[in-house]
Amino acid sequence: MSKKFVTRYEGNPILTKDDIPYPVQTVHNAGVTKHNGRYVMLFRSHLDTGRSIIGLAESDDGFNFKAHSEPFMVPSKEPIFCEYEEFGVEDPRISLLEGAYYITYSAYSANGVRIGLAKTKDFRTVERVAFITQADYRNVVLFPERIDGKYVRLDRPHSELNPWSIWISYSPDLRHWGDSRIVLKPEQYHWDQAKIGPGAPPIHTEKGWLNIYHGVFPTMDGHVYRLGVASHKFDDPARILGVGDRWILQPEDPWEVVGYVHNVVFTCGAVPEEDGTLKLYWGGADTVMCAGTAVIDELVDLCLTDSRPAT
Ligand code: BMA
Hints:
- The chain is mainly β.
- The protein has three helices and 22 strands.
- The chain has helices spanning 81-84, 254-257, 296-305; strands at residues 7-8, 28-35, 38-46, 52-59, 66-67, 88-97, 100-109, 112-120, 127-131, 137-142, 151-157, 166-171, 178-184, 195-198, 203-205, 208-219, 222-233, 236-244, 265-272, 277-284, 288-295, 307-308.
- Strands 14, 15, 16, 17, 18 and 22 form a six-stranded antiparallel beta sheet that branches. Strands 1-21-20-19 form a four-stranded antiparallel beta sheet.
- The radius of gyration is 18 Å and the shape is globular.
- It starts with 6 loop residues before the first strand and ends with a strand.
- The structure holds beta-D-mannopyranose (BMA).
């Protein structure tokens, strides 16, 4: 039997639409962080219009979450923002950066999909900061600290010519981004051959930044979404130290195999713990939220010792 890198929580799924006090069709693709010793989850929900909003749930142990009575983010009514998020807000990622929690989310409108940046200190109020990409971007994760004085992110533009790949970009102020370079591409005839994208915000480890990303494989029965890992050099994250050849998680539980979109495990968040493990969170079949644990060193070793080419 091949090695299991992620141990699923026995109580999965940890959050479903039945746990939400307002009407939603799904609970999936959540960013998770710790705030004042508690776990805070921002989850995406489809409404019965097919558009998405973002809800908030909290937990003491990282597995048993209770949702707040109201959504946390719905499409903005404010000028500029309302033009670009009318069709919904999706797939939030949370990074604690210099004392504030920054949320990157996909904003959908007739103008396409682009990335919004929002900010909160307490998860009670939230303010929009700016749109930080043009259209045709999803899956943006911020590094949790400045590197060489600059803010850094991994992003995933989509274009027709290039296979959808992971890029890196830099900013002096979190609003203006540039110096973009491609760092990680799908590998041909491999589990992540169709497209890849950043998943959880990068995690600081002793051997570089751990990047848990999603990769997609096309089959006659539709696309399969799985998760894999890459390690980036600590002081120069444009340099990849290794990319794990094997996936770390694939759809296996019934609620990952069947749902709103079949055969999907999709992460937007992982929380590192002091004991060297991390809690990994993923949406199952775009329908429910699931959790599991992994040993950080094992994920890093997979990147460094059993690697496939990065580009
Ligand atoms: C991607 C995004 C995700 C979703 C995944 C599987 O393109 O839309 O939000 O989880 O597809 O449907």
